[in-house]
Automatic annotation (TrEMBL):
Cell cycle as UniProt keyword: yes
Organism lineage: Bacteria, Pseudomonadati, Pseudomonadota, Betaproteobacteria, Burkholderiales
Subcellular location as annotated: Cell outer membrane
Membrane topology: Lipid-anchor
Gene Ontology process terms (BP): cell division
Predominant location: membrane
Keyword vocabulary terms for this entry: Cell cycle, Cell division, Cell outer membrane, Lipoprotein, Membrane, Palmitate, Signal
Name the record gives this protein: Peptidoglycan-associated lipoprotein
Length: 178
């Protein structure tokens, strides 16, 4: 009796795994790559890839310079830190590509801090922030002679005030083109 139950269970299980698709009558497409000739090929070519109505955009060097100078040039830092946050990696990579494209281009990285801390401490922290950005640019192939790192400490705040939002805006490194 037990064998009969097992045989029935195996039969039901195997029949459930079966497929109702008929494999004998599968349609076959011819993809031999036969050459297309005649008038149809010419008309298809004129309406296809070769002729496009999309105008090309040519960014001259001056347009690229203006675009890069207008783009994000700021790298913000956490409080009491000179570690570059991951969200600013793309900013640094874009500037590195732009600076590498012209070996005569010069950049100054200005490090800034918020108003907390002493004058010497903030000058040192601002210098570490600017050096961190300079090193990141160097790692991306920018020549060391093209980049200068300076610190303004807390002397040139972007936003006046002592709220946390104002201090966040002041903890930065600015990429300035010369």
């Amino acid at each position: 009796m037990n064998r009969l139950v097992w045989a029935t269970a195996v039969t039901v299980l195997l029949s459930a795994c079966g497929s109702s698709v008929k494999l004998d009558n599968v349609p076959v497409e011819d993809k031999s790559g036969a050459a297309v000739s005649g008038q149809g090929a010419n008309s298809a070519g004129s309406a296809g890839v070769g002729n496009s109505n999309v105008a090309t955009v040519d960014l001259g060097k001056s347009d690229q310079d203006a675009a890069m100078r207008a783009s994000t040039r700021l790298v913000y830092f956490d409080y009491d830190s000179f570690t570059i946050r991951p969200e600013f990696q793309s900013v640094i990579e874009a500037h590195a590509r732009f600076i590498r494209a012209d070996k005569a281009r010069k950049v100054v990285i200005e490090g800034h801090t918020d108003e907390r801390g002493g004058r010497e401490y903030n000058l040192a922290l601002g210098q570490k922030r600017s050096e961190a950005v300079r090193k990141a640019l160097n790692l991306l192939g920018v020549a060391d002679g093209q980049v200068e790192a300076v610190s303004f400490g807390k002397e040139k705040p972007a936003v006046i005030g002592n709220s946390e939002a104002a201090m966040e805006k002041n903890r930065r490194a600015e990429i300035v083109y010369r």
